[in-house]
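Service request form, structural biology core

Requester: graduate student, group of Dr. S.
Request type: structure prediction, single chain
Budget code: on file
Notes: please return the result as structure tokens.

Sequence provided:
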Amino acid sequence: MRVSRARAEANREAVIDAASRLFREHGFDGIGLKDLMKGAGLTQGGFYKQFDSKDDLAAQASRRALESALRRWSAAAAANPQDPLGAVVAFYLSMGHREEKMDGCPVVALGSDAARQGVDVKASFEAGIREYLEKLGDWIGAADGEEPGGKAMAILSTMVGAVLLSRAVNDEQMSKRFLKAAAESVLTAASAGDAGLGAR
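Core staff response, request fulfilled:
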């Protein structure tokens, strides 16, 4: 039976959504097409009608995952407009986020995998990371004499690294200490000098 154009597009979106979560849980090479399609409630047969390759899906799923993560940052910031960075830090550097392997930050979950992927996947990550940096830059302001984005890059690196390390150990107390130390470091760095925390 022929699938309508609207249904085919809905199926395609469902596959991208499912893949954005399943790749974060298993890695790009840790799950095959059959299980990706099953995660979307579809059979493998329709995959090549919707995507050029698994790499094509990986690039689109990465973009979707980063867009989803950015929406969560924006929602946290909007909930506390007086201290948007503090709100994002509290959510991002939390034990709850540490446990969210399917829905958490794709840079943490897939960053090292992305480094081994093709240019399209890397382009999706680069675009998402640039948006992260832009948000951070808005919240922290520009430090005197510092290259634009340098402080935002240091803060993002600290946050991503802390969540990654917190997930890499079995010791829950060590996990919590990584997150707490990073939160303190980020907020101290952001408030150093004349940089403001308010949204611009």
